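Please fill in the sequence for the structure shown.

STRUCTURE ENCODING:
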């Protein structure tokens, strides 16, 4: 279980018991409404997050609100290409790690933002083109996703690649000029580097059914039909003084393609409608079972990139605004739907082994490769060590394994537990994974003790 999964189960367990922890005070009783955004969202199986800046972590008003209210963080700038690879092949993760550790130490999820984007590229990448840029970009995805492997809830793998206006097509950029398949190449590289992270496409001006959101919808549908690994779509939701009437319907049509949806950068211009628009976004997310969380793009108005627009939930002094109360009320009032388990891919019905153990496999495949997640479940006696056998189709080769020790790369291959996951209590389960080239295995794996 990764750190964030562990924290999430703790949060959910707390919520299920009707215990709300706010400002260090535990309030017991099912009738009590949650008093923070994160606790209330967690009761609905969702997260409520904020974009944060490493440079503000020394401000105690800021971190006080952050740790009290939010259970997800996104680095506002610290994991972007210019920040993480300022010169080619030299990676700097100091500030990204500060955001990561701030989130993990508070039991929060961490959204990774953003592996590839036409903006905020380092100068050296801006001056590249063609195959040199393509390989540099894919190397960037691989290196950054590998550095954060196992710790990121969702990655914005590609950000803002579609054009505004009515074309519904791609935005021109140096990345786009390397070939239309740059987005799927990025998603495949991200999956291979961090199989546990949900992989999102993220964009703005997509907050309703329009030409741009439909262009993205068609890309996601195509990716799903061809097995390109994509798990989620981020709707930035930088909103003005109105909200599209079909905001929720638009989220739902993406969810119906088989991806999660997330509100990733919410902020709303201050005006008569600010509180109502925030509430409408919150209700829309709660009404779509695959809408797994909301992130606001900053904490106090003074932290916002939208200088002078006061678009956030806390004023410059850190006081809760009317918009805050309206979001909290909407969270407390709503949400009869629960998002699917975050541990996907995993089988929906757990196996009930009669023998020592059993194993099931789930695959994320694409043309030419796959990532396999194998779930090992102990039988009625518990286990002190396990071995899983997998038969690979001809032409398939294993290229990497995690949380198990593999033997063989083609044909009949076996995987044994590593030191920390061999002991399973009766009925207990653990997961390991491997990736490979060629077609993924289709036969049920064998499992034996020892
Ligand atoms: O909030 C970010 C701001 O501090 C940066 O200067 C800016 C640089 O382009 O990026 C802002 O964040 C953007 C996000 O990464 C992607 N969607 C739009 C956000 C607001 O511009």
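FILLED IN BY: designer on duty
SEQUENCE:
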């Amino acid at each position: 279980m990764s750190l964030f999964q562990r924290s999430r189960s703790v949060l959910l367990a707390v919520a299920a018991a009707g215990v709300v922890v706010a400002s260090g005070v535990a309030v017991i009783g099912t009738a009590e409404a949650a008093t923070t955004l994160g606790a209330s969202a967690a009761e609905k199986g969702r997260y409520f997050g904020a974009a944060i800046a490493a440079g503000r972590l020394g401000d105690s008003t800021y971190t006080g609100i952050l740790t009290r209210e939010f259970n997800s963080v996104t680095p506002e700038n610290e994991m972007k290409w210019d920040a993480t690879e300022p010169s080619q092949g030299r990676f700097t993760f100091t500030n990204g790690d500060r955001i990561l550790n701030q989130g993990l130490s508070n039991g929060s999820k961490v959204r990774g933002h953003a592996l590839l984007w036409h903006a905020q590229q380092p100068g050296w990448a801006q001056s590249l083109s063609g195959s040199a840029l393509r390989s540099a970009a894919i190397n960037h995805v691989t290196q950054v996703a590998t550095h954060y492997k196992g710790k990121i809830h969702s990655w914005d793998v590609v950000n803002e690649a579609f054009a505004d206006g009515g074309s519904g097509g791609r935005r021109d950029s140096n990345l786009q000029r390397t070939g239309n398949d740059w987005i799927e190449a990025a998603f495949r590289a991200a999956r291979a580097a961090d199989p546990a992270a949900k992989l999102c496409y993220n964009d703005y001006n997509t907050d309703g059914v329009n030409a741009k959101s439909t262009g993205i919808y068609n890309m996601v549908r195509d990716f799903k039909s061809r097995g390109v690994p994509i798990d989620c779509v981020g709707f930035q939701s930088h909103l003005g003084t109105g909200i599209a009437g079909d905001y929720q319907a638009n989220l739902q049509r993406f969810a119906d393609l088989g991806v999660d949806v997330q509100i990733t950068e919410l902020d709303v211009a201050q005006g008569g409608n600010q509180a109502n628009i925030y509430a409408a976004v919150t209700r829309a997310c709660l009404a779509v079972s695959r809408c797994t969380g909301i992130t606001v793009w900053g904490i106090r108005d003074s932290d916002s990139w939208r200088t002078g627009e006061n678009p956030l939930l806390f004023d410059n002094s850190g006081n809760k605004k009317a918009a805050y109360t309206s979001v909290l009320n909407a969270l407390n009032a709503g949400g009869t739907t629960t998002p699917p388990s975050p541990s996907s891919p995993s089988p929906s019905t757990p196996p009930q082994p009669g023998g020592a153990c059993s194993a099931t496999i789930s695959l994320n495949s694409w043309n030419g490769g796959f990532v396999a997640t194998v779930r090992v479940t102990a039988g009625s006696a518990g286990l002190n060590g396990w071995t899983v056998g997998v038969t690979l189709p001809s032409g398939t080769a294993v290229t990497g394994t995690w949380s198990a020790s593999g033997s063989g790369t083609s044909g009949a291959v076996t995987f044994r537990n590593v030191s920390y996951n061999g002991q399973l209590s009766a009925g207990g389960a653990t997961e390991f994974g491997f990736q490979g080239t060629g077609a993924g295995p289709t036969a049920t794996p064998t499992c034996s003790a020892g």
